[in-house]
């Protein structure tokens, strides 16, 4: 286990524009984009724009900025998918389930009686792009 931030992780590359993403929301401090292996319709991720491995080394400012964006996007996603609720996942270190070592929050719109799909299956890019547009359309002006 390493406790240092790796600036070559996939989310750092997305932030630098080296890897494309379906952006949902962006402000000065955070970015929200779609997960390309969605476990629910509308599954998206919120990350800080500054280096941060996970919640264990996050500053209060990084956490506050992320949670503000999580709140904004979760409400938009709930409306966009007429969801009954939202599940928020956040993993820390390998033993805690973290796979990408840049702080991130998973937002999952949920419907009663519909299970979250298993991890690791690539989604349909056209559908993911369409789902991003649904959420964007529900964001506050």
Please supply descriptive tags for the structure shown above.
141 residues; alpha+beta; 3 helices; 29% helix
Structure, described:
This protein is an alpha+beta fold and 141 residues long. It has a single domain, classed as 2-Layer Sandwich (HIT family, subunit A), CATH 3.30.428. Helices cover 29% and strands 18% of the residues. It has three helices and five strands; from the N terminus they run αβββαββα. It has helices at residues 10-15, 60-80, 125-138; strands spanning 23-26, 30-34, 44-48, 85-89, 105-110. A five-stranded antiparallel β-sheet has the order 1-2-3-5-4. Helix 2 (60-80) packs across helix 3. The radius of gyration is 14 Å and the shape is globular. The N and C termini lie far apart (43 Å).
Summed up:
29% of the residues lie in helices and 18% in strands. It has 141 residues and is an alpha+beta fold. The protein has a single domain, classed as HIT family, subunit A (2-Layer Sandwich).
């Amino acid at each position: 286990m390493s406790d240092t931030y790796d600036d070559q992780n996939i989310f750092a590359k997305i932030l630098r524009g080296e890897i494309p993403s379906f952006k949902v929301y962006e402000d000065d401090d955070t970015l929200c984009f779609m997960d390309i292996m969605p476990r629910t319709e509308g599954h998206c991720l919120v990350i800080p724009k500054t280096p941060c491995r996970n919640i264990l080394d996050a500053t209060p400012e990084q956490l506050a900025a992320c949670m503000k964006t999580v709140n904004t996007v979760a409400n938009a996603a709930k409306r966009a998918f007429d969801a009954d609720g939202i599940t928020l996942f956040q993993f820390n270190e390998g033993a805690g389930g973290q796979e990408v070592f840049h702080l991130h929050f998973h937002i999952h719109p949920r419907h009663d009686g519909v299970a979250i799909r298993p991890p690791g299956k690539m989604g349909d890019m056209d559908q993911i792009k369409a789902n991003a547009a649904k959420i964007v359309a529900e964001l506050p002006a």
